[in-house]
Amino acid sequence: MRYGIISDVHANLEALEATLRVLESHKIDQIVCLGDVVGYGADPEACCQLIRKVATHTILGNHDAAVAERMNYQFYRLAARRALDGHRTVLSQESIEWLKSLPYIAHQEEASFCHASPIDYTTFKYIFGTEHITPLVEAYDEQPFVTFIGHSHLCKCFYYSAQNAEEILNTRFHLVPGYRFVITVGSVGQPRDHDPRACCGVYDSSSGEFEYIRVPYDIGAAASKIFATPYLADTFGHRLFLGI
After folding, report:
1. 210 is in which domain, residue-wise?
2. In the chain, which residue ranges form alpha helices assigned H by DSSP?
3. Structurally, how many domains does the chain consist of?
4. Is the pLDDT score of 120 beyond 90?
5. What is the CATH number of the domain that holds 72?
6. Fewest CB within 10 A of the end CB: N or C in the chain?
7. CB 7 within 8 A of CB 210
8. Which residues contact 167 (CB under 8 A, 6 or more apart)?
9. Rounded to the nearest 5°, which phi and psi values hold at 6?
10. Which residues make beta-bridge pairs with 159?
11. Is the pLDDT score of 25 beyond 90?
12. SS3 145
């Protein structure tokens, strides 16, 4: 099975459409979305509709949970809160109900898919470094072979045993038996690793190979929509050009 794994679309339709076109060329069997379809960008409804159409699994992200009133987001920055409030006003009731129905985690073959750390995933804890893998090391026997996550908007991969964890610093690699893996697939709609291209992952469960895919898209068009949307901060558009 070849999985195309996307995350953190954040209402960026230009990035999503470009990414899906590239994944189609990689002969993908299933698309999995790891959440945060909404937030920050200018096309929440179109992105919800498109992902509902193409994704086999879609996982609940924290911005999705906020818009669907499944969490309290009053501690978010003001600009992020305004974006989420604005998205709630433009989303169809059908899309709101879909967001309300999304699961926190899904499983298929030897893989799990969730938005953030698979340990207490309902609190959306980040994984930035090996110190955040410690709870997984301690629960090694209970973990699947590989867990795919988003949330940080970064390309971070780790392998671990029952003793320790190490980071993987390659953009293409094989998952070898005897270890467990946590792979953060980057962000389609708002990369934060100083590469403005959309990012996603391709995982071949038969060969055990994972690869990051970077996709150029029309950043200017996506940013212009943000600048023209009154409830969205211009910062959300400017950062797209810089990948931060």
Report:
1. 2-242
2. 13-25, 44-54, 62-67, 78-90, 93-101, 134-138, 219-227, 234-242
3. 1
4. no
5. 3.60.21.10
6. N
7. no
8. 129, 130, 156, 157, 158
9. -120, 155
10. 166, 181
11. yes
12. coil
